[in-house]
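Lecture 7 notes: from sequence to structure.

We start with a single chain of 461 residues. Read the sequence below before looking at the structure.
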Amino acid sequence: MSLLHDRLKQIWGYSEFRFPQAEIVQTILDRRDALIVLPTGGGKSLCFQLPAVMQSGLTIVVSPLVALMENQVQELREKRIPAAMIHSELPVSERRQILGAIANYRLLYLSPETLLSSAVWQRLLNPQLKINALIVDEAHCLTQWGETFRPVYYRLGAVRSALSNNRNRVAIAAFTATANPLTQETIQRILQLESPKCFQISPYRSNLTLNVQSVMTPRQRKQKLLEVIRSQSGSGLIYVRSRRDGEELAVWLNQQGYRTAAYHAGLKSIDRRAIEQAWIRDQLQFVVATCAFGMGVNKSETRWVVHYHAPFLMSEYVQEIGRAGRDGKAAIAVLLKSSWLDPEDQQRWNFFETQERNQTTKARKLIQKLPERGNIDAVSREFKGAAIALSLLHSSKQLIWTDPFHYEIQSRQKLSASLNSTQSMRTYLKTKDCRWKFVLESFGFEEISHCGHCDVCFRGI
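Now the structure, written as tokens:
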């Protein structure tokens, strides 16, 4: 423990761990599986980066977003920690260079798709390569995207047995800021965690006021936004749901005299980094962003967050409001929701749900045509949408992955209806109960009845 504190001070500049960082670090060093649910800004990345520094060998970090990988790897390199990332935007020559020198790194960041790509996987299978741990960062993405959008997430549970052949056991640790009890159970099952040590800290922040305001028209939405911006001091963030929304709103706000920029996954890496740094250095008053912004970007003195459009999922909402008030000082999160006169939010939800439903319906029809066992790549070439169909079977416990590339269908019973993923967020917007109470109960906490700092509680005073 003394050595851990020395490295913490030497590399990160901290004199003490936050609770429960030290215990998490020791759990990973002991090669025990773990499920860690810590609030946004709770210091999750240090919990797996420090163990990686403390031992020889490689720690693989599965990360959902290129921007998140870039931020963490950049910070690690600034601390002179040997870290690398491989993603689709890297030139082939750079990917080969990293794979050739893979044994020299302590941390390697990969998307789940890149982890199971042929070139990377074959290199990781080398028995001479020492692999200590598989870290699944932002693990809620596994349940949020694993069935339809990114089905490769559901194959991660078969990774350990393949990588552990002829070497020490590879530990698995899943990190997230948002996981209700059902999500936690799904993460443990899909990743095949073995008697995991679980850490769970409430996302509640008494310094963060939650406010939901109705808007009648698109014009009023803009006026409400301006009211919030004018009433707040310090840095802020505005979240929108699409790239086009972000770009159009940023142009309009620039015309109003505000220094801002639109941020989304469609930007080049160098442009994303430039916007992040301009915001951190107060060269931009705020950023208009999609959900691509925030993971791995830390500005503790952020005073306000505005959801210009209501997010679809409660997990997205909690992640994004968690950017505000990390320094413990007063902050506010304002969500603008459409009233019954303005169907804009309803139209967005309908589109999201229709896409999800259509994709699932196609997969259900395809299930009966798939061979009982096979290779995912070969089957996907023959049957368009096979990956999603197999993922749905896995989700319903009717399929197993014998390794990350080969499956066996055990039954083809009728799949249960998918849960309405947007229902929790819809209910939150309509609730007449304390908003913090609703948020906490959504994630399995029951610690307050009235927070005293949300719009519902204010009305009750």
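Residues 238 and 288 are 5 Å apart (CA to CA). Keep this in mind for problem set 3.
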